[in-house]
Please model this.
Amino acid sequence: MPRGRYSLHDPHDHTPLAEEHFHCAPGPSGWRYVSQLTTPTGDHSGSVDLALDDLGRPLRLEIHAGDWQVRGAALDGISWVRTDPTGTQATEGNVRAHAFTGTSPAFLVATARLLRLTPSADATRVRLVALTDPVLAPRTVDQSWALVDRETHATDNGPLIVDEYQVTALDTGERHTVHLAGDVVLSAPGIELEDLQTPPSTFA
Model:
C-alpha cells in the first residue's frame, strides 16, 4: 500500500498551494485512494476519497475543499452532487463523460487506469468532469492522452516501470507530460512527489 506526500503548487508561477498526504491500494474490486490536504501553513484544507472499479471507472468520489463538498460516481455518464458551504443548497449534475479530474494526483492515476494505453504515438480522447479549486466548480473538459514511453528501472525492491504520458487539453492545445509508476505520480505539472514510504502498487 503506497503511502506518502505530494506537494501541490501553481504550475505557472510555482506558488505553493497545499500538501497532500495519501495512501492508496488496489483491491479485489479495483483501486482506492484516500488523502488529506493541508495549506502551506499546516491548516487542514480538504480531502479526497476515490474508489475505482476494476475497469477504472469511478465507483465513488467524495472530495472536500474548504467547506465545499462533491460526491459523485459513474452513473449514466458521470453524476455528482455539489453542496455549498452553508449545507442548505445542493446542486446535482450529470454529463456524458468518462471520469472526474482535478488537482489531486489521484485523478491522473485514475485516468491512466481507465484508458489502459500501450506505448504508441497514437492519442486517445477522453471527456472528464473537472472539479476546479477552490470551490469544486464542475466543468466538462476534453483531453487527449498518449503513452509515449515506458522505461524499466532497477531498484532495491525490484524493477520499477515508469510510464510517460503526453496529455493535451483539446480546448487550448496546451500540452504537458505526466510520469507514473504504478499508482504513484512521479511528476506532473503542479505536482511533486516529496515522500514515498512504500513502493508503488502495480495493476494486473
Q: What stands out?
A: The helical segments are 105-115. The two ends are 15 Å apart (CA to CA).
